Amino acid sequence: MLTRYGALLFAAGFAFLLFVLFTSQPLGAPTMLAGQAVLNEAAGTVGAANIVTAVVLAYRGIDTLGELSILFAAATAVGLVLGRSHGKQASGEATEPGGFILRAGSDLLFPLLLVVGFYIIVHGHLTPGGGFQGGVVLAAAFVLPVLARPSETVSHAAMAWVEGLAGTAFIATGLAALAVDHAFLAPLLGTGQLGALLSGGTLPLLYLAVGLKVGAELASLLLRMTEEESGT
Amino acid sequence: MSEFALLTLLIGALSLIAIGIGGLVLSRNLFRIVLALSLAEAGANLLLVLVGFRRDAIAPIIEQGHALTATMVDPIPQAMVLTAIVIGVGVQALALSLAIRAYVAYGTLDMNVMRSRMETDISDAAGAQPATSQHAPAGGRPLPPISAPRLAHNKGAQG
Amino acid sequence: MNPSFIALVVALPLLAAFLLPLVPKVLRRLVGPLVLLVVAALGMALWQASLSEPLVLAVGGFRPPLGIVFYVDSVAALFVLAVALVTLLLWPWGGDASENLDRKQSLTLVLAAACAGLTVSGDLFNVYVFYELAAVTSYGLAAGSRTAAAQVATFRYVILGSLGSLLALIGITLIYFRSGTLNLAHLADLAPQTLHDPLGLAAFFLILLGLGVKAELFLVNTWAPEVYATAEARVSALLAGLVSKLALLVVARLLVLVFPLPEAREALLVLGMLGMISGEFAAYRARDIKRMLAWSSIGQLGAAFIAFAIPGPAGVAAGLAIALHHLVVKPALFLLAERWGGSLARLAGAARRSPLGAALFALFALSLIGVPPLPGFWAKYLLLSGLAAQPDNLYLLAGLVVLVTTVVEAVYLFRVVGVMYGREAKGEDAGLTNTGSANTQPASALAGSGVFAALLLAAALAAPLLAAPLGRMATQMSDGAAYVARVLPSTATLSGAAQ
Fold first, then answer.
1. Is the domain B3-57+72-135+143-157 a CATH 2.40.10.10 member?
2. pTM of the entire predicted model
3. What is the ipTM for the molecules in this complex?
4. Closest to C152 (Cβ–Cβ): which among B24, B87, B115?
5. C374 in a domain, yes or no?
6. How many domains in chain C?
C-alpha cells in the first residue's frame, strides 16, 4: 500500500516540478534561435511551402532516416519475436469472413484509401501531411481487406521488397547528393516554384520513399499481429 | 491563445505524464503498462508542441497569397514531435508483441507472476538454486508460489 | 580526408540492413561483415585524420545551428572503429533458421549504425534518435534467444528503457524551451547564460537518467542482470560492451560541453559510487556466472561514471581508459561464460576440460581486477590518481570506494578462477556438469575471446606507447571551447539570421 501512495506522490511531484520549470519563462514566446533562422531561409534554400517538411526532410533529414530505421528495426524485431515465417499460412482458415457490410465497405474503401494516402504523401511539401501520415493511411488500406477476409493474407515477401527498396531509395537519394554536392542528404534538383506540386527538389521523392516505407512497415507489423491472434 | 488556454494545455500535458508514470509504476497487467507508457508519451509530445507555440502566429506553411514574412510558430518542435510519435509507435508494437508471446508462454498477464516464473526459468537454466533474497523486490515481498500448471511452457521457442 | 565521408559510417550499415533480405542467398551472409569492414576502414582513416584536427560535417549542407552536425574528434573516430570491430567479432554467423538469422543480422547492422551515429552526432535531438534506434535494436536482439524468460526480461527492459527515453525527451524539451537550439556546440556557447541554472540542471539529470538506462547507471540498471541472464552471450556482450559505452560517451560529451558544473559532476560521482558498490557486492553474491558478470559490468560502468566526473583531461583520460578496457574485457568474458553457462558450481574442473578457455578467463579476470602489467591496472591507476588530485572530499571518498570494491571484485573473480582450476565436482553434481558443458558454438566463442585477449595483451605490451595518444584524445575531447569554435566558426551569422 505504501508503495502505491509513494508512486502516486512521486508522479504528482514530478509533474509539479515540470510545471514549475515550464512556467519559469513565458509560454507562447519561444526563444526560436534555430527556428526563426529556419523560417527565414527555408523557402529560399529548400523550396518547400510546408516548412515543417523542410525541417523533417532537409534540415533534420538524418533524424528522419533514423526514424525510418527505428520502424524497420521494430518491424524486424516483432518478426523475430512472433516468428511466423514469411508466406506461411496462419492457421486462420477456420476464421469466418467479416459480414457483408464490412466486406463491401472494405472493397469500397480500399481504392479511396490508396488515393488519399498517395495524395497526402505527394502533397507533403505543400500542405500539412506527408510521408508518415500518408504511409499510415496506406497501411490502413492494406490491413482493412484482411479484417474483412481474414483468410486472405498479404504476401510478406512483397512487403519485404517494398520495405527494402523504399529504404534504399531514401539512402540512395542521400548518397546521390553526397556524390554530386559533397553533402549527404542535401536537397538536389533545385527548388522550383514555391507552392507548385513539382517543387522542393528531391523532397517529394524522399517523402514518397518515406510513405512507402512507413506504409509497408506498419502494415507488416499489424498483419503479423493479426496472424498471431488468429494463429493461437 | 489566452494565457488560460496555454496553462490548461500545459497542465493537461503534465497530467498525462503523471498519469502515465503513475500507471507504469502501479500496473501489474502488461497491457495496462503499455497503455500507461503511451499516455505518458502523448503527454511528452504535447509538451514538445507547446514549447514551440508562439502567440498570434500561424502554422509554418507558406500559402499562396500570404506574405512570406507572416509570424509563424517554431517548426523544429513539430518535426521533433513527428519523430517522437513514430518512435513511440515502433516501441509500443514491440512491447505488445513481447507481451503476446509472454502471455502464450506463461498464461498470465500479471507482471509479478511472470517475473517470478522468469526467475525460476533462469535459475533452472543455470542449474542454480533461486537466490530469492537477491532478486526479491526491495520491500522483501515473498514471491508468489507457482502452483498453476505452466500453460504451453516454452511454446515461444517453437513458434 | 573529406569530412563528407563521415555520413557513410551511418548510411552504409543502414543501407545494408534494408537491403539484406533482398540480396540473393549466396551473397547474403557476406554483406554484413563486408560493410562492417568498410566502416572499420573509415573509422581508421577518420582516426588518423582527426588526431591533428577534429572533422565537422554539416549534414545536408545546412550550416550548423540550423541543420544537424556530425563531429568527429579522435575519440569519436576511435569509437567508430571499435563499433565496427566489436560488432564484427560478435557477428551472428549462424545457429538459427535462415529467416531469423537474416533478422538478427539486419538488427546487428542497424545497431552498428546507431552506435556510430551516437558517437559522431553533434545535435541533441539527433542523439536521442540514434539512442532510440540503438534501444529498439537492443530490445529485438535481447528477445532473439526466443525463450519465454527472455521475452519477459525484454519486456521489462523495454518498459524501463521507454521510461528512460521519455525522461530524456522531457529533458531535451526543457533545454529547447530555454535555449531555442539543439546543436551541441551552440548549446555549449549559450549554456553559461541560459542553462547553468536549476532548469538546466533538471534537464541534465533527466537526460542522465534516460541515457543511464543503457549505460547501466545506478537506479535504472535493474534490467541488466535479467537480460544478460536470458539473452544470447553475443547479445549480452554487445549490450554490456558496446552500447553501454556509447551512452556513457554521450553523457560525457554533454558534461564536458554543456554542463561543466560541479553539481552535475557530483551527481555523476554519487551515482557512480552507488553503482560500483551495489554492482560489485551483488556480483559477489551472484550464484550464476552470467549474473555475476552483469553485476560486475554495472560496477565497472560505475567506475567509468566516477572517472568522467573528474574535471579536465585527467578525468576524460581515466574514463576513456576504463571504458575501452571494459569494452575489450566484458564481451570476451560473456563469450567465455556461454561456454560453461549457468551456475558457478558447474565450473568445477572447467580448466581440465577447456584449458585455453579457463586460461583466457583468468587473464581477463586479472585485468578486470587491475593486476599490474595488464591494461586494467593502468585504467584503475589513472582513475585513482585523477581522484587523488582533486581537493574535494567527495572525490577522496570515491577513491576509497574504488579501492574497496576492487577487493570485492578480486574476491569473487578469484573464487571463480579457483573453482575452475579446482577438482572436478563429485557425486550428483557430475551429471549437472556434463549437461552444462554442452555448448552450441564453442569454436567461434573461443576464437572471439582469443581476439579480445590478443588486443588486451597488445595493449599491455604497448601501454607506454598508448599513454601519449590517450592523453591527446582526452585533451581534444575535454576542450569544449575548441568544439564550439570548430562547429560554429562565427556565431555572428546566426544572430544576424535570427533577427
1. no
2. 0.90
3. 0.90
4. B115
5. yes
6. 1
